[in-house]
């Protein structure tokens, strides 16, 4: 059976759902023992997979309320608003929960690069001719993004 293409299409623009709808969505998410869930960010119009990050309940709530991707930084143990230091933000187009409730898919409109290395996405290492190879070069200098 072929899926109805309109059911796969993201909404035309983000509008924060009502509190009751946000609560129902949060109930559908199975956070792990640390209170986290993996979140895949995908460019909404091209399908390009940009990155994988983690979200806790607060990050999901903020993302739904603001329409701007917010994640949980495990290394800093705090919320991380994508683009807060680099300007490379993600505008939420749609947020989906997988069949098991244990993974999120954020369809986003990425401003600039998604990866802290200055590449468009974080998936730039692959096997080529038996060697581990970087298949994409940085398009932006990370020092210019983060001042490091």
TrEMBL record:
Pathway: Amino-acid biosynthesis; L-histidine biosynthesis; L-histidine from 5-phospho-alpha-D-ribose 1-diphosphate: step 3/9. Mg(2+) binds at residues 98, 100, 102. One of its GO terms (molecular function) is phosphoribosyl-AMP cyclohydrolase activity. It catalyses: 1-(5-phospho-beta-D-ribosyl)-5'-AMP + H2O = 1-(5-phospho-beta-D-ribosyl)-5-[(5-phospho-beta-D-ribosylamino)methylideneamino]imidazole-4-carboxamide. It is an enzyme of class 3 (hydrolase). The keyword Zinc applies. HAMAP family: HisI (MF_01021). This is Phosphoribosyl-AMP cyclohydrolase. It comes from Paeniroseomonas aquatica.
